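User: Reviewer 2 asked us to show a designed sequence for the structure in our supplementary figure. I'm pasting the C-alpha cells here. Could you produce the per-position amino acids so we can include them in the response letter?
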C-alpha cells in the first residue's frame, strides 16, 4: 500500500549516489515536496506559494473563529517531533504550527529516554514512529541521515512524510523558508528580494542555515551574495559551485565593516564550536564578525539584520530596539511558515479557501 511517491521506485544505493539536484524529483509528489529535506527541492513558484499561504494562515488566525477553523484542518493527523539535537525555536515553532492546525503531537527530544539507549538504531526508532504517526519532523546531528530515513519511510509498509528540521552541518531547509518569508515581507515595498545584496557573516562552513538559504536565494534575479567569515569558516565549495552553475554572483570577504553600507540584509550567525574537534581547535577570533550599536549608522536605512538564533555576542543586545533588527519577527515568521509547509505537504492548502 505504497503512497505514490517516487522514492519507492529507486534502490537506496542508486538514490544515495545522486547529486542533491538529481535527488529532488524523488522527494516530490504531485510537483510538491512530500518529504521536505533539502533546499534544492523548492522552486520560485513554491516559495511564493508558501509565503502567501503563511500570510493567509496568519491572517485567519487573528480571530477566535479563524483560529478554531484552522484547528479543524489537520485534526485527523498525528505528528512526531524527533529532535536528536538541541533546539528551542525550531522545536517550539513546529509544535506551535501543529497546534495551530489542530494536529496532535508527541516528541522525543532526548534519545537517552528512548530505546536508543538500549542500542536501537535511529533508523528503527523512526520506523517505530511511523507506526503511530502521520508525519515525522526530525532534527539529527548526522548530515544525510534524513535522506536515508525518508527512503526507509517511503519503502515501509506505512509510508509517511519526513520534514528535515536540521541535518548536521548540511541543511536546514525550513529555516531557509522562514528566512525567505522574512526577506519577502521586509522588502515588500522595496521591489521584493530580487536585486538585493545579502551578506552572510560568521560560521558559514558549519552553519546549515546560511547554506540552505543561499540555495533558495538563487531563485531571485539580480541578487548578489557576500560571504564574510574567517578563512577557516568560509562558505563551502559545494554551495559556491551550485551558485556558479546558475550564475548567481557572490563575493568572499573577511571583514564585514566595509560592506555594511552596501548590504540590504545582513545575516549574522554564531560560531558553531560544538563541531570543533581535537584537529581543528585553533581558536577563531570572531570579534570582527559582530555588529555593535556603534555600527548602526553605517547601515542603509532600509537594511535588515537577521539571525537564525541562538546568538552569542555577534549582535549587541542594544540593537534589538532598532527597527532594522528583524531577528525577533523572524522567529514568529517561522511558526506561520512551518504551518504553511505542513498543511501543504498533507495536500490540504486548498481547504483554506473555505474560509473566504
Ligand atoms: C540554527 C541551527 O540549529 O542550525 N538555529 C536554528 O535552528 N534557529 C543555528 C544555530 O544553532 O546556530
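Assistant: Here is a per-position design you can include in the supplement:
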Amino acid at each position: 500500500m505504497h503512497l505514490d511517491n517516487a522514492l519507492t521506485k529507486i534502490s537506496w544505493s542508486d538514490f544515495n549516489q545522486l547529486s542533491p539536484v538529481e535527488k529532488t524529483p524523488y522527494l516530490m509528489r504531485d510537483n510538491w515536496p512530500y518529504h521536505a529535506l533539502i533546499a534544492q527541492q523548492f522552486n520560485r513558484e513554491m516559495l511564493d506559494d508558501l509565503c502567501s499561504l503563511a500570510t493567509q494562515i496568519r491572517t485567519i488566525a487573528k480571530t477566535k473563529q479563524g483560529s478554531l477553523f484552522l484547528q479543524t484542518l489537520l485534526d485527523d493527523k498525528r505528528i512526531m517531533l524527533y529532535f536528536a539535537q538541541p533546539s528551542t525555536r525550531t522545536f517550539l515553532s513546529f509544535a506551535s504550527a501543529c497546534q495551530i492546525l489542530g494536529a496532535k503531537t508527541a516528541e522525543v527530544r532526548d534519545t537517552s529516554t528512548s530505546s536508543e539507549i538500549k542500542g536501537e538504531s535511529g533508523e528503527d526508532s523512526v520506523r517505530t514512529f511511523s507506526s503511530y504517526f502521520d508525519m515525522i519532523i526530525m532534527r539529527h546531528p548526522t548530515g544525510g541521515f534524513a535522506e536515508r530515513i525518508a527512503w526507509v519511510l517511503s519503502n515501509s509498509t506505512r509510508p509517511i512524510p519526513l520534514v528535515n528540521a536540521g541535518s548536521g552541518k548540511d541543511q536546514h531547509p525550513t529555516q531557509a523558508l522562514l528566512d525567505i518569508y522574512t526577506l519577502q515581507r521586509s522588502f515588500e515595498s522595496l521591489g521584493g528580494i530580487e536585486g538585493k545584496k545579502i551578506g552572510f557573516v560568521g560560521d558559514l562552513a558549519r552553519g546549515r542555515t546560511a547554506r540552505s538559504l543561499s540555495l533558495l536565494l538563487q531563485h531571485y534575479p539580480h541578487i548578489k551574495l557576500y560571504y564574510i567569515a574567517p578563512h577557516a569558516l568560509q562558505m563551502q565549495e559545494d554551495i559556491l559551485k551550485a551558485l556558479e552553475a546558475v550564475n548567481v554572483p557572490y563575493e568572499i570577504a573577511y571583514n564585514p565593516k566595509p560592506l555594511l553600507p552596501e548590504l540590504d540584509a545582513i545575516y549574522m550567525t554564531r560560531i558553531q564550536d560544538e563541531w570543533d574537534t581535537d584537529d581543528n581547535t585553533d581558536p577563531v577570533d570572531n570579534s570582527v564578525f559582530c555588529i555593535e550599536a556603534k555600527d548602526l549608522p553605517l547601515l542603509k536605512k532600509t537594511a535588515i539584520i537577521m539571525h537564525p538564533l541562538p546568538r552569542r555576542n555577534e549582535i549587541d543586545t542594544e540593537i534589538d530596539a532598532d527597527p532594522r533588527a528583524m531577528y525577533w519577527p523572524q522567529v514568529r515568521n517561522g511558526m506561520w511558515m512551518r504551518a504553511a509547509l505542513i498543511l501543504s505537504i498533507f495536500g490540504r492548502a486548498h481547504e483554506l479557501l473555505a474560509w473566504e
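For the response letter, you might also mention the following. The longest strand covers residues 78-83. The pocket of N-carbamoyl-L-aspartate is lined by residues 89-90, 166, 172, 175, 208-209, 270, 272, 308-310 (CB under 6 Å).
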